[in-house]
Amino acid sequence: MKHLLYTALFCFLVLQSVNSQQLKSPNGKFIMEFTLQKDGTPSYSLNYKDKTVIKPSKLGLELKDDKKSLLNDFTVIDTKTNSFDETWKPVWGEVESIRNQYNELAITLNQKETDRQIIIRFRLFNDGLGFRYEFPTQKNLVYFVIKEERTQFAMTGDHTAFWIPGDYDTQEYDYTTSKLSEIRGLAEKAKTENLSQTSFSPTGVQTSLMLKTADGLYINLHEAALINYSCMHLNLDDKNMVFESWLTPDEKGVKGYIQAPAHSPWRTIIVSDDAREILASKMTLNLNDPCKIEDTSWIKPIKYVGVWWEMISGKSSWSYTDEFPSVQLGVTDFSKAKPSGTHGANNANVKKYIDFAAANGFGGVLVEGWNEGWEDWFGHYKDYVFDFVTPYPDFDVKGLHEYAKSKGVKMIMHHETSGSVRNYERHMDKAYQFMKDNGYDAVKSGYVGSIISNGDNHYNQFMVNHYQYAVEKAAEYKIMVNAHEAVRPTGICRTYPNLIGNEAARGTEYQAFGGSKPNHVTLLPFTRLIGGPMDYTPGIFEMDLSKFSPNNKSHVNSTIANQLALYVTLYSPLQMAADFPEHYNKFPDAFQFIKDVAVDWSESNYLEAEPGQYITVARKAKGTNNWFIGNVNGYEPRTSNINFAFLEKGKKYTATIYADGKEANYKTNPQAYNVRKIQVTNTSKLSQLSAAGGGYAISIIENKK
Amino acid sequence: MKHLLYTALFCFLVLQSVNSQQLKSPNGKFIMEFTLQKDGTPSYSLNYKDKTVIKPSKLGLELKDDKKSLLNDFTVIDTKTNSFDETWKPVWGEVESIRNQYNELAITLNQKETDRQIIIRFRLFNDGLGFRYEFPTQKNLVYFVIKEERTQFAMTGDHTAFWIPGDYDTQEYDYTTSKLSEIRGLAEKAKTENLSQTSFSPTGVQTSLMLKTADGLYINLHEAALINYSCMHLNLDDKNMVFESWLTPDEKGVKGYIQAPAHSPWRTIIVSDDAREILASKMTLNLNDPCKIEDTSWIKPIKYVGVWWEMISGKSSWSYTDEFPSVQLGVTDFSKAKPSGTHGANNANVKKYIDFAAANGFGGVLVEGWNEGWEDWFGHYKDYVFDFVTPYPDFDVKGLHEYAKSKGVKMIMHHETSGSVRNYERHMDKAYQFMKDNGYDAVKSGYVGSIISNGDNHYNQFMVNHYQYAVEKAAEYKIMVNAHEAVRPTGICRTYPNLIGNEAARGTEYQAFGGSKPNHVTLLPFTRLIGGPMDYTPGIFEMDLSKFSPNNKSHVNSTIANQLALYVTLYSPLQMAADFPEHYNKFPDAFQFIKDVAVDWSESNYLEAEPGQYITVARKAKGTNNWFIGNVNGYEPRTSNINFAFLEKGKKYTATIYADGKEANYKTNPQAYNVRKIQVTNTSKLSQLSAAGGGYAISIIENKK
Predict the structure, then answer these.
(1) Parts of chain B with a pLDDT under 70
(2) A425 is catalytic
(3) Nearest Cβ partner of B382 from A138, A259, A469?
(4) Do domains B4-286 and B302-597 have the same CATH topology?
(5) Which residues of B fall below an 8 Å CB-CB distance to A?
(6) A198 Cα to chain B: minimum distance (Å)
(7) Is the Cβ pair A455, B460 closer than 8 Å?
(8) Whose CA is closest to A67, among A32, A23, A116?
(9) A454 closest CB neighbour out of B138, B252, B429
(10) What Pfam families does the entry give (chains A, B) (predicted)?
(11) Helical H runs in A438-489?
(12) Beta strand pairing status for B232-237 and B204-206?
């Protein structure tokens, strides 16, 4: 990609010191205005198509143990503008190539009294604004401690927000849709129980935050390139409707240890009057550094199955035995232990999944509960909880690898840390080497429960550094990482495409923990997925869990057609078919779509979108002329109207439509669906009903002459 | 050693449940009595030669988040006694073989209400008592959190104590001698400044604590085998003169996360009416597990010199340049930086030390400040502060190794962590491998400043585990460890003899930081050294630092003869000759003793001892018939009277006596000494004057026929 940077157009011009400065987006739709207020406080505002999106909002940082903060008494001593335009190709993605075009304004501020400089760098794209704080090398600002970042996002009114409560330890909440003024009143109700949670304010929310204004503007607030900095929440002043950054602190209340030269992550504001453009935005990726991995040939999108849903649903167990009150790795002898008989990760069961994967064209098999330690893995603040290399007696690592290999299937490793991150880092090299020695190329890591490292939570700077450390070390071993319960992604997968997946939101597992809202999946692409792909683990066909797990009264709030659509609407280079082989075998015609659907794309067209209500997207499978469409629908039944103009002119295609049955409903009748085939061209139109919590999926295959 | 365990005499007898139980030491001098108080609180008392040493003292643990603690409501459900006698050979030590003889009493207590059992195991030796809490595998006590250990040591009166203030982050205080009742009033004055310190109570003191009673009993309180537990302090109830254990907490106030089966470290009480027996006690080692390293052939005692005192004294610097406001490893380019000209670890200077070591028979050369990062290594809460493998441009790792090798000298590595322990653990494997690749067999590690890991201090359980992790991992690489600023030793060097040294007390460096009390070295063997050898770094000949480091007004409070004696009185398998070659060259006759003295011994005879006043010890060099004597003296000039009965009958020896000059004084005339030779046999006697802060050293070499 480097050469593109050189060919990019640079035009530097040094201007007079001015206290107000405007920046226009390349397409002219956005205007950002930087203003230095009377007391020397930097501020900015943002307009889109002559509408105010962000009212004048203060910028700055409050420092700890420093006589003076970086909040005011600044003067502008330098102003630089720059235009940039490049096109780059992601290793995997929703599209084959991404245009990175923006106009840039860099304001250098000087605080006379302390003789300290900071730079505020704005990048205005055709779909929104990104800005960050930069701390250049200088005499009087070398090491400093952040008490709080004071970045404001002043709203123009009492917008509708699609939000989850701010929390230092979990992101796995259902989304609440409400006016900004209603957040305070709904905060407690919005906090469903979690194994580890730490909230901080009744008006605190997480990013990426989706908003809609009364006059139809869609606004998304998030951050990009979160590296060596603590994760940002937003706290709302609900008198004035002003959001302010709220960084995640450590036990001492410290929100960041900074050494100059350094910079903050980008603060991002994506805006459009068309919700589909929010979903199509590549601004977050563009604000991250280009790929730092030279050889990316080993990074491959993949569909997988695995020994997972049966533990989540309660049908089987991660642990091997019930004999021990506790486990001491290296001391407890499992070879002599009496198996509980419920252990999911046993050779026979794993082979069943390998056979199923091979028979149906899945590239990988994930197995959880394969390694010693699950008998007491959680809730004991246990330091040495797993060693990541010692399997249970009934899990034959080498044998299963050989078996999988003979069937052309890859095993996917699982590393649950139970929050014991020092222990994980101590074993990381051995664990990754063990994976390579046994033919594993991808790992699903987990951080369930409280962090076992005094004073840390899931999203403070120290932990953000840990997740990054794991991804970069994995890259050294050519290992792909799919991190669960880690900090929410911020587009880092551009720089480290071996980060092929994250959970960092409420995934399918919650359908087995009491269920999620039926419109949850119409919100994830507007929120969590703004930062990168999600390992949502869709594909559940058996919605009544009590049928196979008597003690589980949960119901999956989704129709089968909706589950199929998720493979297209929830973009990820890593997609699981999460249900049991026997459940797929009950519905072979529906399962056909999961077998057919691609996981890597050359084009994506968002056809319909409204947060909380519906999303319809068409994607072209990379390296083919075939398309796949997904539609997910919210609470109300709805007729989706789309056309096929995206198809190649003059070509004929066979479209197989997997739709909700007439009586389908996510609760009362989730398994009612029908499959039909029609012929389509680029002039075809489709009017298709989607049930409540339903949707449809379409495969469009070019007709062979 | 195993076979010795088998030959040891075991006699188990299960007794009736009794609420009072006596245990006698093998020599009958000690009687320990266990009593269950009315409310079911376990307690113990200790008698020595019919004198009470410890009055009835409560035992137990207070638990956190547990409905009931492990303090009372116990009943005795089992009592076991056992006698043990073995002799084992340490890899290195003060003596060639150690007898481990004790009578044991194990009381199993049951807490009816909670149906939980704990065992209190007492081992009564001929020189004192050790006991610990054991938590066997059981249903109702698996994982638990310690709020506080409630172990009491009830004194019989207002004893004289030789103490340093309790602190979670430093052990580097001068000792204060006072009555127990005076501790509270002296606590503040006793706290000299340190780079990292956290005190907790005006009557909190550290172990090993030395005490003397009015009727001449010497009592030492400490712990043995501190593994996976937090370090114990003692807090004094100075109304009742009762010490109680005070464990080191983490940021959350937690003092221990325990998983059964587990046990506490041993709590030790060494007692004698002869101070020399306290110094000769091997109880602390005996309470540790036998050596766990199979092949110990690579573990070798050694005398060394190094590039260290010149930085400590301020003559030169650890850092390479003054050019950078801060360093970013891998980014900052030192090859282009302007050297400050004061960098001590440069090739020419290191070669000077290698030449000096080779010329004078020293086995090793330590070099501090060899690796990038010293420009901003301290006080910035800097995570990635060192990588432990990147030398400064003027330090040629391979070249210097080759040069040293050609002269038969070993280089000693230095790993300063600056308290950034996660960073150290991340680099540990690479760092140790780098050492082996470059011929280094030993590392001096450092933990200066606050621990950079949220909520940890130097001595809590999490950090105790770190130091142990470093020692065990070093053993995998056949690397010897000399850890500075780590938790005070508790005899673990028996189990891991590659832990050849620790600082963990106020070392010679403080003679350059304002000076230490002249009787400091008469206390270290009674306190800090009870747990294991100390890398005190003696051998300073130039006491007036301003002579070579103009800005340093410190004075070394010791005579040259005292400095020589330290090589014998402060036992360590690792002894540094800390001063500059040029200073040794000024006093070649005195330096001769440092060249001659051994570092490993077959016998040790403590000839005279009184804490705070004087220590005289004679040691036989392992594998020879030669002896070395050291005498250190406190504030008052004193005539030491010894005889040579320890010499082999009928043999003649030449004794070279390095003594204080007539006018010698640690302050006014520290460099006045004389050297004389006399002939001695096992019937000889010596009367020798030692100056204030002085002493003498004697080498006794058998005459060749």
Answers:
(1) 1-18, 454
(2) no
(3) A259
(4) no
(5) 137-139, 142-143, 145, 250-252, 257, 259-261, 325-326, 328, 376, 380-383, 422, 425-426, 429, 453-456, 460, 462, 465, 469
(6) 15
(7) no
(8) A116
(9) B252
(10) GH97_C, GH97_N, Glyco_hydro_97
(11) 461-476
(12) antiparallel
Residue A313 contacts residue A336 (beta carbons within 8 Å) = no
pLDDT value of residue B417: 98
Structure tokens at B464: 């105790």
Name which of B385, B379, B394, B303 is nearest B344 in CA terms.
B394
C-alpha distances out from residue A325 to A416, B261, B594, Å: 20, 10, 57
Write down the architecture of domain A302-597 according to CATH: Alpha-Beta Barrel (3.20)
CA dist B528 → A187, B171, B466 (Å): 56, 9, 21
Smallest Cβ–Cβ distance between B260 and the set A261, A326, A454 belongs to A326
Minimum-distance CB partner of B139 among A260, A325, A383: A325
pLDDT in tens, A53-75: 999 999 999 999 888 999 999 99
Cis upstream peptide for A208 (omega within 30°): yes
Q: Which residue of B has its CA nearest to A421?
A: B422
Tokens 């933990």 correspond to what residue? B447
Q: Decide: helix, strand or coil at residue B635.
A: coil
pLDDT for position B11: 35
Q: What is the pLDDT of residue B18?
A: 61
Peptide bond into A261 cis (omega under 30): yes
Whether the bond into B261 is cis, omega within 30 of 0: yes
Q: How far is CA A9 from the centre of its chain?
A: 32
Query: How distant is the Cα of B266 from the closest Cα of chain A, in angstroms?
Result: 22
CA distance B532 to chain A (A): 28
| Shortest Cα–Cα distance, B95 to chain A (Å) | 34
Q: Which residues of A touch B456 (CB under 8 A)?
A: 454-455
Distance from CA of B425 to the nearest CA of A (A): 7
Residue A376's pLDDT is 96
Cα B288 from chain centroid?
A: 15
Active-site position among B223, B509, B582, B603: B509
Angle subtended by helix axes A588-596 and A560-569, to nearest 10: 0
Integer Cα distance of B528 and B406 in angstroms: 38
The single-letter DSSP state of residue A290 is: P
Q: How many CB atoms lie within 10 A of CB A255?
A: 24
Q: Which residues of chain A have pLDDT under 70?
A: 1-18, 454
**Contact call for residues B183 and B158 (beta carbons, < 8 A):** no
Structure tokens at A238: 């609900």
Indicate yes or no: CB of A257 within 8 angstroms of CB of B381.
yes
ipTM of the complex: 0.93
Residue in chain A closest to B254 (alpha carbons) equals A454
Task: Give the C-alpha separation, A696 to B5, whole Å.
Answer: 74
Inter-chain CB proximity A138 and B456 less than 8 Å = no
pLDDT of residue A65: 84
C-alpha angle A456/A458/A459, rounded to 5°? 95
> 3-class secondary structure for A568-594?
HHCCCCEEECCCCHHHHHHCHHHHHHH
Phi, psi of A581, deg, nearest 5:
-50, -45
For chain A, give every domain's residue range: 4-286, 302-597
The CATH number given to B4-286 is 2.70.98.10
Contact A460 B454 (CB under 8 A): yes
Q: What crossing angle do the helices spanning B421-437 and B461-476 adopt, rounded to 10°?
A: 10
State the catalytic residue, choosing from A149, A244, A310, A509: A509
What would the two tokens of residue B251 be? 């940021």
> For position A67, what pLDDT does the model report?
85
Which of A141, A385, A454, A467 to mutate against chain B (most B CBs within 10 Å)?
A: A454
d(CA A421, CA A277): 38
Q: Does B381 contact A429 at a Cβ distance shorter than 8 Å?
A: no
CA–CA distance, A23 with A133 (Å, rounded to integer): 17
Which residues in chain B are closer than 8 Å to A257, comparing Cβ atoms?
A: 380-383
